[in-house]
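note to self — DONT lose this again. spent like an hour looking for the file last time. sequence + predicted structure for the chain T wanted, 135 res
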Amino acid sequence: MKSKTMVLFGRLMKHIIRSPDTIITVAIMTIAMMLLFVYVFGGAVKSSLGAGVNYVNCQLPGILLIAIASGIAYTAFRLFGDMENGLFARFNAMPVKRSSMLWANVLTSLVSTMFTLAIISLASLLMGFRSGAGI
């Protein structure tokens, strides 16, 4: 079962890497929203936060949650597309468990979301995010 899951995982990762709209939608759009909220709308909010509070520190958790939700939504969209195209029906004729396809989608979502969160975190560090928490 593990080998079939990993083969399907490789298939899905190739689809994500070859699909620039996925990368644009999930990673770049969330960074654009963060830039918009911090630099365009942040001036109005910064006055109510008080002196010395960086608005990026308040904005980053929400942006990360938006990125996670986008990744989950994209996974649901991929699963729906596979069901509509008959991929699950084709796997019924082969010795592949249905759970292998689901686990491959979960792993793909996990890896791509972690990659997206790393990109967003690096962008927020460039924008001035500093955490007050320790390791």
